[in-house]
Amino acid sequence: MKRNTPFYLIFTVALLGLTSCSNNSADTETIDTSAELYTEVLTDLSVDVITQTYFDLSFNAAAMHDLSSNITIGDEATLTALKEAWQDTRAPWEKTEGFLYGPVDTEGIDPAIDSWPVDVNAINNILNSGDPITSSLLESNNEARGFHTIEYFIWGLEGNKSADELTDREIEYLQAVTQNLKEKTAQLYNGWASAGDNFAANFILAGQNGSIYSSQKAALQEIVEGLAIIADEVANGKIEEPLNGDNGSAKPEAEESRFSNNSKLDFANNIRSIQNIYLGDYDGNSGKGITDIIATVDADLDTEVTTSIAAAIAAIEAIPGTFTDAIVNNRSEVENAQENVASLLTLLESRILPAISNL
Q1: Contact present, 353 and 218 (Cβ < 8 Å)
Q2: What is the tally of structural domains in the chain?
Q3: Does residue 231 lie within any of the structural domains?
Q4: Do residues 113 and 287 touch, judged by C-beta distance below 8 A?
């Protein structure tokens, strides 16, 4: 099902298109077709992939906060729904990690919502302080807020927390930390939305006045560098540290999202963030992506990259059981997934980045 783009986004892009046409009306016989393609790619990626992913993240975070506002001690049904809401919110966040530039970086939002590990001592100090626990109180410690603090409260250290184990104070903290996540994800979406700070315009207008990018090539390089960064993080950080972090042996405490056993899905969604940007597709909406540029330069390379992306996702999903168990008992499957992600990283760094740099 094709997602309808919000009207204000359509209006903004149309307005920018009209402005571009009016500025180049005298040069209609010498249109730079490459520049036209790059504009399409930069527009589709910034509006229909990046901004839309942030919209979904913000929407789902708000729904999760609403659920937390209704939970009570012993309310197992709401706790289960809250766990599902956490996973629903986590998914679009992990699909943003291929584009950690713009407001998520400059406004410090990434560490505010996704720092790991959680600071259990700081959390306990807040719980035991007697002070009202509010969203603003949590602003001082990134390791005591965000996704993994919420995960800690609703799953517990061993991943089997029941609603009977909740306390009034934990519920107060849970409501504050989901409120904080709601605020941060709304800030992030506003940073890209055309009705907000409109960071997307920097890509749409790349090479023109009003953009931080001096050229379309510079904007495309930023995008591809983002893909390489997350591939490197998955292969050499998120998988490597728990797999070999104890002098070549497993280090389970280094695993991210281990309370919820969500790690494999996190990793697969990180690679899907690469896939969405590379193909220009998101949630049923198909646009122009990096593939449309690479295919004009080297069709074989384009096929190799799309195949490598799919292979990396498949290898991650093929890891048996939980990631916590697999790093001990199914290490070869974890290593295979790591190797597939590393191969994708090599393609991005050694061939796609140079191809973009040589445009």
Answers
A1: no
A2: 2
A3: yes
A4: no
Supply 248's token pair: 């070549």
3-state SS, residue 289 = coil
b/e burial code for range 299-330 (CB count within 10 A of at least 16 → b): eeebebbbebbebbbebbeebeebbbebbeeb
Contacts of 344 (CB under 8 A, 6+ apart): 231, 271, 274, 305, 308, 309, 311, 312
Q: Is the pLDDT of residue 19 over 70?
A: no
The answer for residues whose C-beta is within 8 angstroms of residue 231's C-beta and 6 or more apart is 271, 274, 312, 341, 342, 344, 345, 348
Task: Assess if residue 180 is contained within a domain.
Answer: yes
Q: Are residues 177 and 48 in the same domain?
A: yes
Q: How many helices (H) and strands (E) does the chain have?
A: 18, 2
Name the pTM for this structure: 0.91
Tell me: do 257 and 326 sit in the same domain.
Answer: yes
The tokens for 90 are 């986590």
What is the domain range of residue 116? 7-22+32-204
pLDDT at 30: 45
pLDDT for res 29: 41
Phi, psi torsion values for 191, nearest 5 degrees: -65, -30
- Of 25-29, 35-39, 134-138, the one with minimum mean pLDDT is 25-29
62 within domain boundaries: yes
